[in-house]
Amino acid sequence: MKIEWKGIMPAVTTKFTSDDELDLPMFKVNLQAQLDAGVHGIVLGGTLGEASTLTDSEKRTLTQETVAFVDGKIPVLINVAEQSTKKAIEAAQFAKEDGASGLMVLPPMRYKSGDRETVEYFKAIANSTSLPIMIYNNPVDYKIEVTLDMFEELLKCPNIQAVKESTRDISNVTRIKNRFGDRLKILTGVDTIALESLLMGADGWVAGLVCAFPAETVAIYELQKAGRIQEAIAIYRWFLPLLELDINPKLVQNIKLAEVATGIGTEQVRAPRLPLFGDERTHVLSVIEKGMQTRPIVPDYKNL
Q: Which residue range is the domain that position 266 belongs to?
């Protein structure tokens, strides 16, 4: 399935049972909520999806089940976050076999690769597959920045088509547009500057709190796209305290608690993560409760 690099693409959480197995029924409850809200793609096995704790078999199951469930309505991307080039190429091959429409690719895990090593890593993956690729550029969390000069080299690979822009520098959206035009599509990856990034020209948003609040997230995107900026801002202002739960080391636990509040998820995480407790839990629940109490009624954004 061809990917249009635009719109809202949830980085979905992975659901687990109390026995630490994949909870596919609840996973599909959440997927249905995303489809009902009108999201434009699904990203599996990212940080929010607890990628580092998933086995290869579980990743393949999630891909296969999601592809079957969405049934061609929207593209399905699987995250590639590996320690070696060999394993990353294998993951890309599995993704193709399992029906994924594309890949989101992180730099090498654990080893802090240099610029040349990082470029060669991404190129090796791109040259091993026909799947379109979105590079995840998040130097804040992963300590490796993909610079514009590095993208100049990477874009020689025709299937490297997009960037998940998470440098937290909104002006980088303009720098990318000035340098590459539409050759490199931009999906903002930081919830707390998402609307600002869209207004500056980002093509889409790989979102986190969408996992709990899909309609509100898609409404922000569609309203700003239609030029109804003040309506988008109003929802975004309500949303911001919740969006801040995403830029936190406990983002998985935070967002899963929000999914519980909206009835489309559970709190189960995989160790070493543990559910929140004490003051931390109390604070997050208070943010979620206030958001639920003041939750806006969104306009009919699907028919703008």
A: 7-303
